[in-house]
């Protein structure tokens, strides 16, 4: 469970309801089915018109996925890559095939890494390996970005259709005239509530979901780039110690303080040499 | 027929009309010819002033085209490319000419692919083939993007001219004064209805059309890039198995789950080697 | 004459006036000299403050230039390039000098093309030719883009100064107080009319002019890139048939349907080989 | 202490309070707890929903960090690099190890520089050194940019939730009706005060913090690029005088007048040669 | 003196005051000290919070600098470069040192050019010269862009703090209630006048200053790129005639009509060859 997302929703909606209650407002009066239908229905229609059925299928999946915290595997992947590098040095590149193909039911190997190592074992040219794996990331990223754009679209449509609801409500007021103040109040209520829904849906649901998935995608790319770098180094029989040096930059993704990490790194290395 | 586009329009307009009716609004009162003339006519005029006649001809074509679902040919193209690769390996590059030139009335070969293969048969340098085909995509994409920009312009002009209608309506109110409340109501009606039309036209018609065509263009580019990669590999007599490895990244475009696909891939390959 | 620009202005202003008249509005009341002075004068002042005198001189030129339809010369340029390529093959590179220098009073040779061919005749290195000509496009494009940005600035300033007029008008209302409703109506009239002028000037004059000139600049770049490609191929004695293949991508600029064009191309080539 | 940041807050809030007081306004009436809860709480919730816990931890750190002025070390780093370059020339590359590893309790060596020099001592290939160190900057910059984006998000959410507060306040007014003018005034007060808080928080706290940290990051990158350039030059045994020439461009970061600096540079060099 | 800037301010402010007076408005009533304090003071505070003291020092300098028209030296620089090229051809590269070091009290040599030529004399590798000089431009441009961004920030803050003043004014109205219409009018006056000041400061002062300095920076870059190209050509002993051909593209910066210039160029060259 991604606690930050849950906390965010609680803090966000809680603050608004709380601040409203502090001034004596009645939160229940903010709930109105027709406003919800106009804002969310209109936005959903526009999103449907924007994207193909093929892509729309991913929309509910993404809204759930964002609530699940991905396990950061950067540290263990790095250790595993260094282990592979040492094994390759000691027992030759071919020894990696058995290692990578061994199915460990508890801990699955990243298929991307596996694919890279199998190409190393096949003796594929390192530039070719890098090309194929980079292209893999590129295609994945293109595809993923298009999906995240659905959330951006949703975030842009919600306030627009909130405004549509407001305009419709005001037109209704004009049609009814000044004679029935009850209808007038009700209609203006619809007007403002749709705007409220539009802004809240965009700012507490769709913008955060898009931002979080985009940020995870950026980390995904960095992690895969680390794997490409390591796989090519293994193919080129680079010294495991130099590989460690190379990969240490990526530790920052896990939230370790960079400057410290790289200092430790250098210190360790300094000592190592003594 | 692109069901998502049709569904989108139904959901979008339906939600707004439905939500409006839930509050007792009369949808018929939202229809007004003069508001339509100002909003759509003004926007059309601005779009005409923005683009050349040559380009404007494509506008109606694009609005229809977006309703037709393009058949995804990535899987069959990939199979065909692998088939060509194997044939080239077995019977030589020249054997491809007959294959590619054979007119199959049921299934037409992609002219872009055909052009590439004919250059391979001609013995053109692989870098030259890549240059020519990439340039082909580049020119096509430039041209297509300019056309899609017409829809972006439309989407930007509609709310602007909706606002123009609103301003004009309000000015009319002022000229008429406070004496005739009937004219006042009517004029403010025009004002808000033009804004409504502007926002709806932009958000349910032009933005979705532009988004969908741009997304298809991105897939078009990915598919053509796959063909270039494959054609150059065929020219360089790359092993068909390695070509399969290379192309597998592109399967994700068809909506197959990437991680799974690439895992299967690796597994298959792993088994293949046993 | 660029018919689309003229049509655009007629459709745009006509729709607004027409829609306004349909509701019984008097178009004459929308004309007001002081509103015009504030909106256009303020914007012009800001544009003057933004750019140097040297650049401002081009502003009126561009507003006229956009009304003149440029003749598309891509087809004839391509034919001429292929003719030069064949001549160079048959009679040697030096034969091109006479050809390119011959002054034809009816049809002038593109000085950019002439410059390239004269460098070919001089035996300049092909990479150097490409560098010099590319740099020529780069400098031209930089300079031209800066000029088009003046129109973008105008388009951004007009609504801002329209709003300035509205604010000033409202302040005047407040100063006059509620006692003289006539002055109040007049002042609010100024307010809304300046906003109207700002939006219309931006959306029917300056945005369209900038868009059209920018789109022509993009085509200019594509055409010049085609010339560079062809000139370098001539310098490298590339086969005229391959050059034709290379250049065919550019036909799309003339509005020919790409897929069809490239298909014909391939077909022709297929037949040619029989 | 970064005086500009402190001064900025004083000038900003002071001017607003001062200008308000000049017109006889009572600043105390602008303080309202519920408005603060809605604006800041809502924004905080949205930011929580946008980013992972791992990244959110950096948020308070960044708000403090921006108040501390970083010491510019570009001049001393440059001198140190030139000193290392001369030492390497005179006593060989290996002599650098002792120099760089010597712990000086008063002045710590930049771990990034140390890491580069240790690779030089190890005899790592210069291209490899450049790759590893550039990648280090790249990963750091990616990570840092993501953190600064949290502040951008905050700056974008504050006005949105300020508006949410305004809308809620207005809805409350409608619910209360026209009967109790006291409640009406209070509610509209909430409405405008939340908008005010949203705009002030964004424009005086979050936008400035993001801008300042982004600007420091740009300087950080320039400084590290200088180190990479120098380390590679030392590895390649470049003449210290030429290295000085190379590095002099970077002096501008310290705020020295560029043209003057480079002139002095050239003059000195001119004299040096006499 | 940059006449366009002065003219711009006169036309801009004059049109607004003139148009206002045409409708009988009293310009004096638009002046209000407290509105000025809130708008400009608030923006200044925000800019202080955004940037370091080191950078803020350049702010007044830039506001004055924009009023001074820079002398275009592109033509004379080009002539000087061609003169250096010919001299180098005739008397050898070393002869340039004396030439470039000679101090001419009337006309100072561009230190950037001088630096390049001294490296040529030193026999530095042409790629190295290009690297060092390009890096010089890059660092200068980075630094300069950051300074110009201060003006962009100012332009963005002014309307925001104008709006802050408006909101504060309206809150004051509410606090005072409907009982004192005089205070009400005065307070709404403050409200609108701050918005007016914000929009005018942004659109007539800060946006134009930023635009003009950015445009000059672009020309600066083009001129320096021309120098790099020429210096490297001199180092490589390129034919002065070819250098002239190369540099002619840059003449367009001076406002000469490009097509004509390049035609003359070609014509001249055509004649030269006869």
TrEMBL record, chains A, B, C, D, E:
UniProt-annotated location(s): Cell membrane
Membrane topology (UniProt): Multi-pass membrane protein
Main location: membrane
GO CC list: plasma membrane
GO biological process assignments: bacterial-type flagellum-dependent swarming motility; chemotaxis; proton transmembrane transport
PROSITE patterns: MOTA (PS01307)
Domain MotA/TolQ/ExbB proton channel: 107-225
Keyword list, A-Z: Cell membrane, Chemotaxis, Flagellar rotation, Hydrogen ion transport, Ion transport, Membrane, Transmembrane, Transmembrane helix, Transport
Key word Ion transport present: yes
Transmembrane segments: 31-53, 154-175, 187-207
Residue ranges annotated for the Motility protein A N-terminal domain, each copy included: 6-89
PANTHER family: CHEMOTAXIS PROTEIN MOTA
Family: Belongs to the MotA family.
Protein name: Chemotaxis protein PomA
Originating species: bioreactor metagenome
